[in-house]
Structure formats: C-alpha cells, structure tokens
Amino acid sequence: MNNPALGDAAKLVGRILLALMFVLGGWSKINGYAGTQAYMASAGVPGILLPLVIIVELIGGLMIVVGYKTRLTALALFAFTIAASVLFHMNWAQPMQQLLFMKNLAVAGGFLMLFAAGAGAYSVDKD
C-alpha cells in the first residue's frame, strides 16, 4: 500500500471491529454473571474463572481499541480465542457450533495479523 495514512486508518477500524466482540462480550458476562457461570460449568470449565474471562475480554478488548501493548494483547487474545473455541464450540454435530468454531478461527487469524502488523499510527503504541 502506498498510502500509509490509509493503512493506519484500516488498522484502526480493524482493531475496533476485532475488539468489539470482546468488549461487548465481557460486559454482557458482568450483566449475566450467573447464567455465564452455569454455561461455563456445563462445558466443564470452573465458574470461578469467570472474573478472569471478563478481565481478558473487557480489558484486552479495550487495549486493542486504543492500541496499547497491541502485539502482546493480540497474541493473548489469539490464545484465548483458540481456547474458547476448543472448550465451547467443538460439538460439530450441531451446525451452529461448527460455524461459531470457524468464526473464532477467523477472529484468531485477525489477532495474528494484528500481532504481525502492529497497531498503526492511530494508537498509543504508534507502530
């Protein structure tokens, strides 16, 4: 790309779109705490981990939006997304679970691209 400003603008929009699912997901887990704990337990994941999940999603998502420690956060959210896919979306007998698994793989790919490319000029990191 010969236009660095356009590339940096695309990175900003891409960061916002990647992070939106995590910020909104973390917030909804706060509002639906008991239900989320029950869902986690049904998948064999201890509900005691829910505060950590909320922190990763909410704080990690906001860090991606503002572009702070972007490469490290993108790598962490890549690992988190892969783990969530394996823990919660492996029932491929249900087409929706297969679709959610594939969607999460695409999101994980986006985080790998962000890890490789950096946040861009419109970020705290400015890389």
Automatic annotation (TrEMBL):
Membrane topology: Multi-pass membrane protein
TM ranges: 12-28, 48-68, 75-93, 105-124
Protein family: Belongs to the DoxX family.
Main localisation: membrane
Compartment(s) of residence: Cell membrane
Matching InterPro entries: DoxX (IPR032808), DoxX-like_oxidoreductase (IPR051907)
PANTHER family hit by this protein: INNER MEMBRANE PROTEIN YPHA-RELATED, OXIDOREDUCTASE CATD-RELATED
Name used for this protein in its record: DoxX family protein
Domain of life: Bacteria
Keywords: Cell membrane, Membrane, Transmembrane, Transmembrane helix
